Amino acid sequence: MRARPLSPHLQVYRWPLSMAISVLHRASGVFLSLGAVILVWWLYAVARGGAAHEAFLACINSWLGCIALFGWTAAMMLHLLNGVRHLFWDVGMGFSRERTQATGWAVLIGAVVLTSVIWLLAWRAMS
């Protein structure tokens, strides 16, 4: 019996930018949901005060907490900018190949720039 070829999978195809951003948009939405749990924890710690708030601050000021906050900020910016891109698509604008490439790069570059600006401003305010 002759072996049948397997269907090509994700590692065979080259990912177009729109596909990669679509995956990132969904992943950032999940990450933002997880970040909402941290937001609720913060609100709970503020309401409880004292030791609960100190414990929250100790966790969030750790290197792991800072990485999580940075990732949450990056996810928020990517999700926001890609959401604006989708609003334009909803009204029928920007469907040409060149326009989707340009707006895809604009979303990625804009997310990096906005995340950097937010963290630089936060860093400056803390020092």
Structure description:
With 127 residues, the protein is an all-alpha fold. The chain is built from four helices and no strands. The protein has one domain: Fumarate reductase/succinate dehydrogenase, transmembrane subunit (3 helical TM bundles of succinate and fumarate reductases, Up-down Bundle), CATH 1.20.1300. The longest helix has 32 residues, at 17-48.
Helix percentage: over 70%
Question: What would CATH call the architecture?
Answer: Up-down Bundle
**CATH homologous superfamily descriptor:** Fumarate reductase/succinate dehydrogenase, transmembrane subunit
Rg on CA atoms, Å = 20 Å
**Residues in β-strands, percent:** under 5%
In total, the number of strands is 0
Which key phrases capture this entry?
mainly alpha; 4 helices; 3 helical TM bundles of succinate and fumarate reductases; 127 residues
Sequence-ordered SSE layout with sheet pairings:
Elements: H1 17-48, H2 50-60, H3 63-90, H4 97-126
Helix pairs in contact: 1-2, 1-3, 3-4
Give the gist of this structure.
This protein has 127 residues and is an all-alpha fold. It has a single domain, classed as 3 helical TM bundles of succinate and fumarate reductases, CATH 1.20.1300.10. It contains 4 helices and no strands.
